[in-house]
Amino acid sequence: GFFGGDRTFYDDVVMLGPARRLRVRAAGPSDLAVEDLGRWGSWTHAIDRRRTFDDTVDAFAERFEPIVQELTADAPALPLSGGLDARSTLAALPPGHASWSFSYGWGARSIETRLARRMAAVRGLRFTAFDIGPYLLDDLDLALDAVEGFQDLTQTRQLGIREVLAARASRVVCAHWGDVWLDDLGAAEASALDEEELTDRALARAHKRGADWLLEHLVARHLGAPPRRRLRSDVAEELRVTGSLEAPDARLRAWKTDGWSHRWTTASLRAHQAAAFPRLPFYSSRLTEFWATVDPEHLIGRRLQRAYLERYAPDLARIPWQRSGLPLGAGRTRRTLAPVGRALAKARRRVRGERVIERNWEVQLFAPGAWQAVEDLLLGRGRRLPELVPTPALRDLLDRFIARPTPSLAYPVTMLLTFAARLERDR
Questions:
Q1: Using CB atoms within 10 A of its CB, is residue 179 exposed (0-12), middle (13-18) or buried (19+)?
Q2: Mean pLDDT of 261-283
Q3: Which bin fits 184, alpha (ψ -120 to 50), beta or left (φ > 0)?
Q4: 316/300 Cα distance (integer angstroms)
Q5: What percent of the chain has pLDDT over 70?
């Protein structure tokens, strides 16, 4: 689900990166030549030192709230969750707003839908909670059309409610990319990092548990160069675009926005388009210009965002944050003890034999009859994936996943499912 540089599945199809200027000219009766003329924009970051932290919170509200209100003037659908980005979008709505809100989860135990329901209630919004059931293998072609195979097909849970969403709204306001602008990227306290250290941090941000299996058994066999060396070279090259920025955390944020969002996040947004067109407040250039003046230290641990909600939406701030299980203004003692409480709750569920489903792949891959279809797509007679991945290694991966379905095994399995579906499509 993530290609380095401008690469795609095909040698003769490349990714058009952001802020690029191209010239296309006729090169023959039925051929075109594309010339890359470089970038038309560049990154800047100059912290406004005159502005205190409290002033920065107010400045964020002054920028963000008009953007949200413009995008919701015709009452589009509003997805809610237990996180902070959708909550911030809700906080920016004027009282008595007419939008219909919704959330999707995995049954009555889903913490995400329970928190979303509470948020909608305190703001008086109409709300519907959806339980996502099996849909993927019945709608595999639709999922592949939506994300074009550039993202894990199990990340398309929006498709599970597409008919209801299409009937209720033609527009949906999505809070994607809020976590990038409103959180630090692990280097906010560093005054300087050399290029090697910065590349290490960027690679750590991009790494997925389970990706090493894919690098070893799929990529290394076909790339013609050690995959980690090639990946490191690609990331280091992309980071050079951010070289004029002084703060390391700002460089990582610019790198992720410049090189990641169009490959990963924007691909997932296309899953919404099967039902309603997405509007994106956090993609506004007005916010980009604002973050170019923010001290990265203000973002550590979502500090600025939490302060915005506590100041401008205390009713929403009192509802627990899904990540911590606590209200945003909880004291240090409660924050320290929160992980202990979550660990105890998990242990109790394990003793009782309760399984809490938290991910779409658990629903889609383990539905009745689903795993047989997955195995056929990956290993069936005449399938294309075994031409590219050694069958014994693939069989071993699937057996280990079925025996112990952990996220680190699910990642290579779902990515191979995505790749196999694309291979079959391209026959």
A1: middle
A2: 89
A3: beta
A4: 21
A5: 93
pLDDT at 336: 53
DSSP string, 211-275: HHHHIIIIIHHHHSS-HHHHHHHHHHHHHGGGTT--SHHHHHHHHHHHHTTTTTHHHHHTTGGGT
pLDDT of amino acid 345:
55
* pLDDT at residue number 30: 78
Cβ distance 326 to 320 under 8 Å?
A: yes
Q: How far is CA 72 from CA 6, 52, 68, 116, in A?
A: 34, 30, 6, 18
- pTM equals 0.89
Predicted confidence (pLDDT) per residue in 156-214, tens digit = 999 999 999 999 999 999 999 999 999 999 888 888 899 999 999 999 988 889 999 99
Counting other chains too, the contacts that 364-373 makes at CB distance below 8 Å and 24 or more residues apart are 364/134, 364/135, 364/136, 364/137, 364/154, 365/154, 365/405, 365/410, 365/413, 365/414, 366/405, 367/133, 367/134, 367/137, 368/134, 370/134, 370/136, 370/137, 371/402, 373/137
- CA proximity to 114, closest of 349, 362, 356, 301: 356
Q: How many residues are listed for the chain in this entry? A: 427
| Cα-Cα-Cα-Cα dihedral sign, residues 238, 241, 245, 246 | positive
Burial environment of residue 339 by CB neighbours within 10 A (0 to 12, 13 to 18, 19 or more): exposed
Query: For the chain, percent helix, then strand, then coil, each to nearest 5?
Result: 55, 10, 35
Number of H-type helices and E-type strands within the chain: 20, 7
For residue 310, how many other CB atoms are within 10 A of its CB? 16
Distance (Å, whole) CA 137 – CA 380: 15
pLDDT at position 59, please?
A: 98
- For 7-28, how does the pLDDT look when each residue is reduced to its tens digit (9 = 90+)? 788 887 877 778 888 888 888 8
